[in-house]
Amino acid sequence: MPHATHILTNCRLATMVGSHINDLGLIDDAALVWQGQTIQWVGPRSNLPTPWPQAAQMHDGQGALVTPGLIDCHTHLVYGGDRADEFGMRLHGASYEDIAKAGGGIASTVKATRAANSDDLLGQSLPRLDALLADGVTTIEIKSGYGLSLVDERKCLQVARKLAQARGVQVRTTFLGAHALPPEFTARADNYIEVVVDMMPHLHEEGLIDAVDVFCERIAFDLTQTKQVFDAAQALQLPVKLHAEQLSDSGGAALAARYGALSCDHLEWLSTSGAKAMAQAGTTAVLLPGAFYFLRETRVPPVDLLRQHGVPMAISTDCNPGSSPCTSLLLMLSMACTLFRLTPEEAVCGVTRHAARALGLADRGQLQAGMRADLALWNVPHPTHLCYNFGSHPLKHRVHAGHWPSTGD
Ligand code: NIG
Ligand code: FE
Questions:
Q1: Residue 292: CB within 6 Å of ligand 1?
Q2: Which atom of ligand 1 is nearest to the CA of 291?
Q3: What is the residue with the minimal CA distance to atom 1 of ligand 1?
């Protein structure tokens, strides 16, 4: 049976298409046509060929603003337990790094994640996913990294895939075996990296890896270890990304750029040479204002430097229990503007067009013929409102893969 054709009118589109990397591409009184899960036509309603060649289902946008479905390109959404106790410890004076060095931090989530079975993990992760979907998210990246053994990393990646089956959302999985040193490898980081390298082909063969990431930091893995993981990824033709320069300038961004990394993420301590290397490699910068806020960092990522070198900036929640227990991508828009001084145009491009790029996805993040029909319809007049209001819930409808929500959705 041919796919149904849909025509949406009575709306303002923010297509994110334009000659400048942060153009909103606004079209007033617009029409958007899609068939199945692919956009066929976008433009002013007055230019819509009528009658449209195929019979079509008509949708009244009721004056909504329509953007591409939002993309949360950096999350650690699948994990067991929480770290509210450590939040309390930090308010009593301990630092994130102190807690990590004392065996808490990521290690405590590893313990809780290993103890949970797949069903528990799915049950704990679904409400977090649902909160993000209620913010208009249609694609989400989910990293492993709280299992740190073949069985537990597999379990987490499988749960990430199951989340996509349970809800109308696309999930991209990233293998972050090199997130932290598991307790059984204390003081044997090099040995653990060999284990990470060994896990990769198995998980890849099972179709569980879309990209590979490393936490490159003085409390995690160094440049040599990062390189070993990247070499293994490259051998399997898997793209890489990096948690880079979050707490110190470790030179991770420049290394990642040499591997043609899709993205470098965090970047508070990024140097000029790191930014230049990213620009040359076409690597996207993923900024994570939730982690900056929650860890009470004071050094903001060098946004001007990134602008100067034309490095596209994406924005994401970093949803995780330790540094950013956040399930609102819209809140990140507000924080990116207020804390990092991004313009609203940059911020909205950061959760659409540039977030798609950070995941290596060329078929979404913009509204134009050939792209996926992933849409968010908003009860606001202009994209700036998505950054300006915080704590509000302006989503009217979410269209994933062309599925117009039925009444009651
Ligand atoms: O992106 N930086 C490393 N990983 C996470 C934090 C994970 C945790 O504390 O559980 C992050 O901030
Ligand atoms: Fe992260």
A1: no
A2: 12
A3: 318
Cis before 68 (ω within 30): no
Cross-strand bridge partners of residue 368: none
Cα 333 to Cα 303: distance, rounded to the nearest angstrom = 15
User: Ligand 1: does its nearest atom lie under 6 Å from the Cβ of 176?
Assistant: no
Q: Residue 51: what pLDDT?
A: 85
Is residue 320 within 6 Å of ligand 1 at its C-beta? yes
CA-to-CA distance for 134 and 288, rounded, in angstroms? 20
Please name the residue whose Cα sits nearest to atom 6 of ligand 1.
Answer: 323
> In angstroms, how far is CA 228 from the centroid of its own chain?
24
**What is the tens place of the pLDDT at every residue in 115-172?**
999 999 999 999 999 999 999 999 999 999 999 999 999 999 999 999 999 999 999 9
User: Which atom of ligand 1 is closest in space to residue 265's alpha carbon?
Assistant: 1
Q: Which residues of 338-376 are buried (b: 16+ CB within 10 A; e: fewer)?
A: ebbebebbbbbbbbbbbbbbbbebeebbbbeeebbbbbb
Q: How do strand 137-143 and strand 56-68 relate by DSSP bridges?
A: unpaired
The 10s digit of each residue's pLDDT in 269-284 is: 999 999 999 999 999 9
Strands 56-68 and 375-378: antiparallel
pTM over 0.70? The answer is yes
The per-residue pLDDT for 408 is: 47
Sign of CA dihedral 88, 91, 96, 101: negative
**What's the token pair of residue 392?**
């509000």
